[in-house]
Amino acid sequence: MPSLARCRGRCLLRLLVAVIALVAILGSLWRLHAASAGVEISTQRIDGVPLTLYRPAGVERAPAVVIAHGFAGSQRMMQPYALTLARNGYVAVTFDFAGHGRNPAPFVASLEDQQRRLAILTAGLTPAVALALEHADPSGRVALLGHSMAGDVLARHAAAHPETVVASVLLSPYLSPETEVAPIRNLLLVYGALEPEMLHAQGLERLAAVLDTEVAPGEVHGAPETGDGRGLMLVEGAEHIGVLYAEGGQRLALDWLDRSFGHVSQGGVDRRGGALALLFLGLVALAWPLAALLPRAAATPRGAGLGWRRLWPVAVAPAILTPLLLWPLPTGWLPILLGDYLSLHFGLYGLLTLAGLWWVRRRGGGGETPALPPVDWSRLALATLAVMFYFGVALTLPIDRFVTTLVPDAHRLPLVLAILCGTALYFAADEWVTRGQGAGRGAYAATKLLFLLSLALAVALNLAELFFLVIIIPAILVFFLVYGLLSGWVYRRVNHPLAGALANALAFASAVAVTFPVVG
Fold first, then answer.
1. Do residues 110 and 81 make contact, with C-beta atoms less than 8 angstroms apart?
2. With contact defined as beta carbons under 8 Å apart, do 184 and 226 qualify?
3. What Å distances lie between residue 416 and 105, 283, 340, 458, 504, CA to CA?
4. Is 62 helix (H, G, I), strand (E, B) or coil?
5. What's the gap between Cα 219 and its chain centre?
6. How many angstroms separate the CA atoms of 218 and 421, rounded?
7. Nearest to residue 234, comparing CAs of 257, 259, 211, 216?
8. DSSP state for residue 518 in the 8-state scheme
């Protein structure tokens, strides 16, 4: 009877969690859709560039702003600024640079090829500016707003066209030393306060060189109303990506543009941060009761079952050897920038982990015994497909709609399969060595930390080629935390690590193949 009561209690708890999660999901989706109320959104392609036009309902011409995304981003990442501007009486145009988002044109194969990179970025910017000018107010002027990588090409365009570009707002920008900022009218640099001080200092130095005086964060020199405004602002609590969603950054940009255009805004700013957090918390929470519905593939938990004494050499060796072995090897075997290296890193890391497991077993280091009941492979296959569906649909579609492009289109599907070869090796090997009866407590988290340290070592060994991996290491950490939690629930129900491993591998392969730029 006590056992039956506990079972009923768990079932009621799962039902309660499912109901609360569904309410959170539906409520957050309503809030996210309501953010575009009163805004007309239309899409088109010009010269192959995907563009999206945001404008107040019923308004044809208004002060116009071109909005550009950063490296490994997409135009959907810039929705908060586009919606904020449209709700405040502006026309906003977003677009995908070549190789990013839904733009199939190839990006530059080497970020160090500055001339080619700028030519490709300019080819994407030009039709966006032309569309903005079509819908601009009678003054025929536009403003530019861009993030990270876009800062350089926007600054050059603004400097070359001071007669049409009335203001530029650059968010955490990259500015090459050759880029002239002196001719730019009304230049505002906005950084996240949590970004490295080195980045703040670079922006301050560029403004100080133009103004011939020291510049401090929060100061405005000149005035946007007269066209000679210069300033650098910090957004509290925001880092390189968070600055795109922070209300403080949107308010700074809106005020700067209002003063530059002589415009009066009356709407609020986009506040999707809380709704997004609620949405994904609901989706993660819903996975817990759903995991209990999965078929059990084995009567006893499967896995290597390595205690810490036998696990540590298996876990540490790949973290050190992988970046050292890949250091002298050339990249470029896949037409995707940095994604090819990530795939190799995952794949070799997984192979070295399996080799370490073989070595431990050869020395009598444990593992499964022949007496264990057989695995029901049909149940395991069904569970794996169900988990893949939830990871690939329930989690991916909302990100694609409200955060950044994440659903692969036809020209990226082959890349997903190629990268999956590497991620499947890693996740299968890692899940196996950290699961099973007798597995070291905290082993799963420790191996993920070691992988991130290994990736950091790879960047340190080849900073010129792999620098931008630094930006995505926090994203990989979030991926490990969220998907690791989900795969843990799956494992405790299915009793086999393969279901969660393959679902994780496919989700990560898809994310890498879609977010990193395709190159020629």
1. no
2. no
3. 18, 24, 11, 23, 13
4. strand
5. 31
6. 49
7. 216
8. B
Contact residues for 500 (Cβ-Cβ < 8 A; gap 6+) = 387, 427, 431, 486, 487, 488, 490, 491, 494
- pLDDT on residue 365: 45
Residue 67 has which token pair? 């909005």
Residue type, 363: R
For 277, other C-beta atoms within 10 Å of its C-beta total 12
Cα 70 from chain centre: 11
Q: Is 63 helix (H, G, I), strand (E, B) or coil?
A: coil
Residue type (1 letter), 136: A
CB 392, CB 506: distance < 8 Å: yes
- Strand-pairing partners, residue 147, are 171
Cβ atoms 106, 93 nearer than 8 A: no
Helix or strand run (H / E) with residue 53: strand 49-56
* Confidence class for position 2, pLDDT limits 50, 70, 90: low
What SS3 class is residue 125? helix
**Strand partners of residue 168:** 144, 187
Q: Give 176's contacts (C-beta < 8 A, 6+ positions apart).
A: 114, 152
Q: How confident is the model at residue 371 (pLDDT cuts 50, 70, 90)?
A: low
Query: Rg for the chain (alpha carbons), in Å?
Result: 25
Q: What percentage of the chain reaches a pLDDT higher than 90?
A: 87
DSSP string, 505-518: HHHHHHHHHHHSPB
Token reading at 507: 């989700």
pLDDT one-digit tens code per residue, 177-213: 999 999 999 999 999 999 989 999 999 999 999 999 9
Instruction: Note the residue count of the chain.
Output: 520
Q: How far apart are CA 219 and CA 228, in angstroms?
A: 14
Read off the pTM.
0.92
Domain ranges of the chain: 1-35+273-293, 37-270, 300-515
Query: Quick one: pLDDT at residue 357?
Result: 95
What are φ and ψ of residue 390, in 5° steps? Answer: -65, -45
Mean pLDDT value across residues 398-421: 94
Question: Partners of 235 in the beta sheet?
Answer: 192
CATH architecture of 37-270: 3-Layer(aba) Sandwich (3.40)
Distance CA 277, CA 119 (A): 38
What is the token pair recorded at 163?
Answer: 């007669």
Question: What is residue 224's DSSP assignment?
Answer: G
Tokens of 510: 């898809």
Please write the tens of the pLDDT for every residue from 74-119: 999 999 999 999 999 999 999 999 999 999 999 998 878 889 999 9
Q: Residue 300 gets which letter from DSSP?
A: S
